[in-house]
Specification:
The complex is a heterotrimer.
Chain A (H helix, E strand, L loop, with lengths): L8 H33 L16 H9 L1 H33 L5 H8 L7 H11 L6 H8 L12 H29 L3 H9 L4 H12 L1 H16 L3 H7 L10 H11 L3 H30 L1
Helix pairs in contact in A: 3-7, 3-10, 3-12, 5-11, 7-10, 7-11, 8-9, 10-13, 12-13
Chain B lengths: L1 H32 L6 E5 L3 H8 L2 H8 L2 E5 L6 H10 L8 E3 L4 H4 L6 H7 L11 H7 L1 E2 L2 E2 L2 E4 L3 E6 H5 L1 H11 L9 H10 L13 E4 L7 H12 L16 H13 L12 H9 L3 E7 L2 H5 L11 E4 L4 E3 L2 E3 L2 E2 L4 E4 L7 H12 L1 H9 L10 H5 L1 H4 L5 H13 L1 E2 L7 H16 L5 H19 L1 H17 L10
Parallel strand pairs in B: 1-2, 8-9, 13-15
Antiparallel strand pairs in B: 3-14, 4-5, 6-14, 7-9, 7-10, 11-12
Chain C lengths: L5 H34 L21 H9 L2 H33 L3 H10 L5 H14 L6 H26 L2 H9 L4 H30 L2 H5 L8 H6 L9 H21 L1 H4 L10
The chains are: A mainly alpha, B alpha/beta, C mainly alpha.
Chain lengths: 296, 483, 279
Amino acid sequence: MESSIKVPKKTKKVQNYLYVAPTVIFIILIVIFPLVYSLGVSFTNTRLGRPSAFIGLANYGEALFDDHRFWSSVLITFKIGAPALVLEFAIGLLLATLLNRNIRGRIVFLSFLSLPVMIAPAVAGLTWRMLYAPKYGAVNGILRSLGFEANIAWLAKPKLVIPAVIAVDVWQTTPFVMLVLLAGLQAIPLQIEEAARVDGATSWQIFKSINLPLITKALVAVFLLRLIDIIKLFDMVWLLTQGGPGGTAETVTLYIYINGFKYLRIGYASTLSYLFLIGVVSLTIFLLRSLYREAA
Amino acid sequence: MRKKRKVRIVLTVFVLTVLFMGLTGQALKAKQAKPFAGETLNVVIIAEVYAEGIRKFLPEFTAKTGIKVNLLFPSVFEAYQQQMLEVTTMGAGYDVLLIAPTWLASFAPYLEELGPLAEKHNVKFDLDDIVPILREFYTKYKRVWCAVPFDADLHILLYRKSAFENSEFKAKFYSKYGYELKTPDTWQQYRDVAEFFTGWDWDDDGEIEYGTIESWKRNPYAYYWWLNRFASNGGVYFDENLNPLINTPNGIKALEQMLDVKPFTVLGVEDFGYPESRTAWVKGDAAMDIIYTDVPKAAEDPEESKIVGDTGYALTPGWVNDGKLIRHVSMPPTWIMAIPRWSEHKGAAITFLSFYYESDKSIEIAVDPATAVDPCRFSQFQSPKFRNSWPTAGYYLDTVKTAIETGFPELQVPGAWEYIDAADYEISQALAGVKTPKEALDAAAKKWNDISEDLGREKQRILWLIQYDAMKKMGIAFNPLED
Amino acid sequence: MKLLSHRGKRHLVNAITYLILVIVTILMMIPIGWTLSTSLKTEGDYFAFPPKWIPSKPTLEHYAYLFFRTDGFRALKSTLTIAIFNTLIVMLLSIPTAYAIARFRVGGKNLSLWILSQRMLPPIAVAVPIFLLFVKARLVDTHVGLIIMYCLFNIPFAVWLLIGFFQDFPLEIEEAALIDGCSRPQALMLVVFPLLAPAIAVVALFVAVFAWNEFLFAFVLTRSKVKTWMILISSFQSPQNILWGEAAAAAIIGFLPGFIFVLSLRKYLVRGLTMGGIR
């Protein structure tokens, strides 16, 4: 929909770019050197504190064909990310719609429900380590008081550690999804809803045909954002598991961290990061294309 | 008249000169006593518990030398990379570093040699006070002295005295296993004792107990608990040609020994680090615990511990090789302090190091359970104050001293962390049941070769031989097990 | 459903709403309740069996430790400064950018995707080069350095979300204002902002929370002069043990600013019956 105000085309264009220019310039200034540096270093065998040599695509070759641990980490990232995303959105959307209704005391619920996301992911990791302790932790404690014989070592068994991580992530970021979707729902002007109600539509019909479409862009935006963030998940998983038993919770970012900061092998870590970046960008573009095709 | 005036002038000048010289003399003397007054040191201390040790004497230090100290806390996870980033960029942001001996090979080129520095500033260190293994491997690199020990960690075996001295249990044990119940000398005995004490409430606290506590969490506990067994089995990191020896029968047997005792460990050991192991011990969950030397202090603290007075100390089990009982114990992490080459306050820094190295202070710090610092020096082992600080302290100190003497030094070649993490990853996979011991150690050995290639195999070999030679002088060499 | 009267149906739906909200809130609060409880416990209770929710000897010593034994005040001041300035700068830059991309299609789809892609960088990848860059620019161990660094992560976040919100916003309402004689900036301020207040508040909230809670670069880019709250929390972890009480106390204080922020923005986060909609 074009604006009906007539403004000379040239001034309009320049004016528009002015809105955007400071931000873009700012980002470029900070990010250009690190990006170029990382790319350059990814073609070397640099280790911090040691002489380095150019080795062409050898790192990329190693990562793609000779590094079983790297591909494990990709799979693990997916195993954690997919279920977590689904749960966050299902629960987040549910909570947002419930809080969109004008019930009394909803600000109380809102304030408390938003707390988990205020906590630093690293702190969440540490806290949940305490909670997941097999004998002394509150999780098993609560299960026991409900009558289960809960002697579960959540973080010590390969099969349990991934669900344990997913639970923490869902706990921590569902409030975020909820708040964003709620904000989107709240931005829908009341008259639109009122008009539909006057016309006899039920709450469910209003939700389906008015609320949902009017938060589509916001929903897609937050979905993509969460997708990226969950693939990038680091602090929480690191503090919670340090990679888990047998490395079964070692996500891609954990593996990059270990290469870069424990081995100080920054050449290889940069290679992994670029592969990671390519993967995420491709995934995002693919999703954007298909999501927009559906919405259109 | 004129003569009187002249005399007065001369007298005044004389008096003023004397006063002036006196005052400057005083100032000079003060400067000599406090040559670094007004300087501020940035000291990396990593954790609040260690900081408590330093804070004990900080006011005294500042009063005596005029040097102020900032304590810095890069996190336990970031400390390695933080300090490396600083020294490799020739930064002067840190004046005293706190590093682990595993990192020594990486840091060594950037550390100030302490010998010449100490001489230049006339500070003394009684290095013979340090147990030889620590002194040779953990304060020197390529035989050059560049660090001072701060906290020496190593593994010992804790056991519940009441359980081991109980005559009823002794009888039951004898009838089941055919030998006397005592603190295990070998890993096989260790397994038996652990099995005996698993699954029943032998200390009447209303909870089921287990045989033993281990710590097999990834990054990098699993590796060190394996190292105890590997080293006492006669294992050593590489042979003279830098071929990894970790997947020899010595190594595989070590891993099998761990899997053997797994059913008799406290629930969740695959995820236990020191904090979890310490908690399980002081709450009385097991009959034995292989853990570092700081836990006994916590076990005597009535605030936290449910088993005050019941902790016995012994050496970690070993292996009988050629008729002799060999024990070796790993020593992680252990912290040492060093001075980076680009510090702008090196004189003040070495004054700081020598102050805290002084016997009386180091004893005070090691005695206090709140500082998490462990003894590693002869003066600490023999200190009457330490030996009397709790009823069994003397016995504890003797055990620790003997244990250190059987210490097994960390790998001290460049890239040590890469080797260790690769091994730890594979060992952890075997412990989690994802791979068999042989598969795991073979994969680790392959990775070790890859790493050596990447770092320059010949260079690594030469550096390894320097360490291996020093180890052989201490009586540690590879002793292959028959399959 | 036709059996219930309209009012009855409304009550039922309300009841279910409350039920779900209460259950979910309780579940969400469990870890936080546990942290609060730990922060008030003496050492013996951290790992009591069975797990204790009420401390047997409640104490404030851990909170006291934060401020009187170690530099809690300094960390608080530093982190607040960084978070506040970072939020201001990010919002000032992001709102016009997002608006222009959403309304004027500046840069088309590519610009917004490029901005989002900045967020795809794993921080670990850029830590070393950023450190080198900041050393040259003398920004290491300064508040400004961290503020700038967090902008790099927060601006893409804010712009991306705001674009979504702006795009969802019905154009007709804006058009109406423009026809009525407002200029574009006026339309922005008088019409769009009030309705999008919840959206902007939420974005600002998360920008601030991120700056407050950031872990990796807080270490990489500081030495002795700047100490953030996260650095303080992690100082309670040593290889041997964790000072659970102090760490818990620091965690509780750590999320207070966010909590206070939410409470003070509550007017904007949920609109009342009187807000919203222009006749």
